[in-house]
Design goal:
The structure holds two protein chains of two kinds. Chain A is an all-beta fold. Chain A contains no helices and 25 strands. The chains are: A mainly beta, B mainly beta.
């Protein structure tokens, strides 16, 4: 079989300012993080009044008090914050206040039945199946939507984030990703900046952690005036 | 007979109605038949305020006041004589007379001070003696002779000067008082007046100078009737020159550094100011790199504060400040500015960010789009000279597909960077049209070249 690669047609190349993802700043505004690891700049506030936000490979979602905001518009949603899991062109959303699971697709929010006990810390999805990280008196577990246990999680003292093929969690004074421990005290929030980065808020300061296996790194993000 | 007797007693009765008081230091003391001015240094003058008032029921007219004798004079002309003093005159309504005694030699002087009135005269004898004044010498802490100068003293600090007062006279001298006047000067310490200095004897005492502000001060040291000038200068409290400390001796692009500011020996004062970060690019391609900032506020300047006694400054309220080195070759310069006076020159620290090969941050290769091979490279070129790339394709078995393809995107990069100041980070998407099946295309290696050399992506597997 013959394949021809046209080496004279790279006029179709394009150069742009790279983006690491989007963060939810301390003022409740979603901002784009430009640059490369350890050398970043924040863009202007794009959406305000945001309680939760997350980005997957191809799109981002933000949760205001009463709706889910996407590039395609707003969709009504239960009150309060939300947890997101991206699965191709769709996303699963967990509403902690109402303990409701839903699927977001093309701007439409569809409730899904689930049976999950305990405090839901994070969700992830793959191939239409959702997994939950839950904190119970018996410990922390990864469970399916029907409540069945998939795996046990290490005891953590703070936020937990399920990522593809692993978990990021916080112990006293450290963030643990896979077998790496990164010193950072006072972590209060983990957010999904993009498929490759998590936002970490610790002691009021925002950091980014690169979660690509073998390239894990933690660095501080520029602050914004509150 | 009774009338005659009454008339004869009237002067005595009226005489008893006039009382003379000497006023010194805010207190009045009754003056009898004599009053002692005491020892007065030759060439100096001692002044005393006398008051006469009426203790009887009837008004008395003071017709004149006289002073007869050597060495004593009225300090001011006697005013309002004749003056009528009503019965039970209060002190504020008394007749005030100021008498000065100036010693001209080592002798005893006297004079009669007489108040003549409508009911007779009342008088007292004033005594004073001239003595050679004891010698005053300034010791440690100030100049040795008048004006005694403390020089510059830090505001709020106290500097003590020790004085020696020596009697070189053949006779004893009584030091009646030592008084310090003037803002910033306090004392005397280590001595209690009055005291006698025997011939050849000396006494020491100290005076403190504590300037409350950064200005010049003057005061007086009054020993008996002698007055000596005191001077001193309040100097702003100095902040020991802060030290800028970094977590690394050198930095390169796309790094984050940590700055702390320490005060050697601790700060004697509270101070505030700013730490400033400036950047000068090496390349003429850009004028700045806006990603070079302190991360706490995303700015080039952060406030610092140091409290008295502390040896570490707070930077935006934190013990340290993290900064980004950006993605442009050049020089980072850290300076510190403060309104506080420093003991030395303000600190300056520079770091040279050298030019490096293209930093490759992330890559991907995709053949998902029909008819194209898409290669994405995210990186940074801190020399702003990238553009030349070489692509080597391999089949799924690792065999090269044709020769390496070279391309020059210099123009595209220049357009991208032109006029920008957001650093050199870039995301380049290079798309190769392909014909035929792409199933056999396995990977590609891209080499990017800039002024500092060539960097390779390594093997990128097409997804």
């Amino acid at each position: 079989m013959v394949v021809a690669i046209c080496s004279c047609a790279w006029a179709q190349s394009g150069i742009a300012r790279p983006q690491l993802g989007k963060i939810l700043d301390a003022n409740g505004a979603v901002r784009t993080v430009y640059g490369i690891a350890a050398s970043t700049a924040l863009g202007d506030a794009e959406i305000t009044g945001v309680l939760s936000s997350a980005c997957g490979k191809t799109f981002c979602l933000a949760k205001t008090d009463s709706s889910i905001v996407s590039a395609s518009g707003n969709a009504a949603a239960p009150a309060g914050p939300a947890l997101f899991a991206f699965d191709g062109g769709a996303a699963f959303v967990w509403f902690p206040q109402s303990r409701q699971l839903a699927q977001w697709q093309n701007g439409v929010v569809t409730p899904i039945d689930s049976s999950v006990d305990g405090e839901v810390l994070s969700i992830r999805a793959s191939g239409g199946a959702v997994e939950f990280a839950v904190r119970r008196q018996s410990g922390e577990w990864i469970v399916k939507a029907d409540g069945s246990v998939v795996a046990a999680l290490p005891r953590s003292s703070g936020p937990v984030m399920l990522i593809a093929g692993g978990v990021v969690y916080v112990t006293h004074g450290e963030i643990v990703i896979r077998d790496l421990q990164m010193p950072l005290a006072g972590v209060t929030r983990l957010g999904r900046m993009s498929a490759g980065y998590l936002q970490v808020r610790a002691a009021g300061v925002d950091y980014a952690i690169r979660i690509e296996k073998g390239r894990e790194t933690l660095f501080q993000l520029p602050g914004v005036t509150q | 007979m009774k009338t005659v007797l009454l008339i004869g007693l009237l002067p005595l009765a009226a005489h008893a109605q006039l009382a003379i008081y000497a006023v010194a230091g805010g207190t009045s003391t009754s003056v009898g038949s004599s009053y002692q001015f005491g020892q007065v240094a030759i060439g100096t003058t001692s002044s005393v305020q006398f008051q006469v008032y009426n203790t009887g029921n009837a008004a008395i007219t003071i017709t004149s006041v006289t002073l007869g004798g050597a060495g004593f004079t009225f300090e001011y002309p006697v005013q309002q004589v004749p003056d009528v003093l009503p019965g039970y005159t209060t002190l504020t309504q008394a007749l005030n007379i100021f008498v000065s005694f100036t010693a001209t030699s080592t002798a005893t002087f006297n004079a009669s001070l007489t108040f003549n009135s409508s009911v007779g005269a009342v008088s007292t004898i004033l005594f004073g003696s001239g003595v050679t004044a004891p010698t005053l010498t300034g010791g440690a802490g100030c100049s040795s002779s008048t004006p005694f100068n403390w020089g510059s003293v830090t505001v709020g600090n106290s500097s003590s000067c020790t004085f020696a007062l020596e009697n070189s006279n053949p006779q004893a001298v009584t030091v009646a008082s030592i008084v310090i006047n003037g803002l910033g000067f306090t004392g005397p310490y280590g001595v209690t007046t009055p005291f006698a200095l025997q011939p050849g004897q000396s006494a020491s005492f100290s005076v403190n100078f504590t300037p409350p502000a950064a200005i010049a001060y003057s005061g007086t040291l009054v020993i008996g009737t002698q007055s000596f000038a005191l001077t001193g200068l309040g100097q702003p409290a100095l902040l020991p020159t802060p030290t800028l400390q970094f977590d690394s001796a050198s930095y390169s692009s796309a790094q984050q550094g940590v700055l702390t500011v320490t005060i050697p020996g601790g700060s004697p004062i509270a101070a505030t100011g700013y730490v400033n970060l400036t950047f000068t690019p090496t390349t003429a391609a850009v004028k700045d790199d806006s990603e070079i900032v302190f991360l706490t506020n995303g700015a080039r300047t952060i406030p610092f504060s140091v409290s008295a006694g502390s040896s570490t400054a707070l930077l935006s309220g934190q013990k340290s400040a993290t900064f980004q080195t950006g993605t442009t070759e050049g020089t980072l310069t850290f300076t510190l500015t403060t309104a506080a006076a420093l003991t030395g020159t303000p600190p300056v620290k520079q770091f040279t960010i050298g030019g490096t090969k293209v930093v490759i941050d992330s890559t991907s290769a995709s053949k998902e789009r029909t008819g194209y091979l898409d290669i994405t490279i995210v990186g940074a070129d801190n020399t702003y000279s990238a553009g030349a790339m070489t692509f080597s394709f391999f089949d799924t078995s690792g065999n090269a597909i044709g020769g390496a393809a070279s391309a020059d995107f210099t123009s595209s990069f220049k357009t991208f960077y032109g006029g920008a100041s957001a650093g050199s980070a870039f995301q380049a998407l290079v798309s190769f049209p392909v014909t035929g099946s792409v199933a056999v295309i396995g990977s590609v290696t891209v080499t990017l070249t800039n002024a500092a050399g060539s960097a390779s992506t390594g093997s990128l597997t097409f997804q």
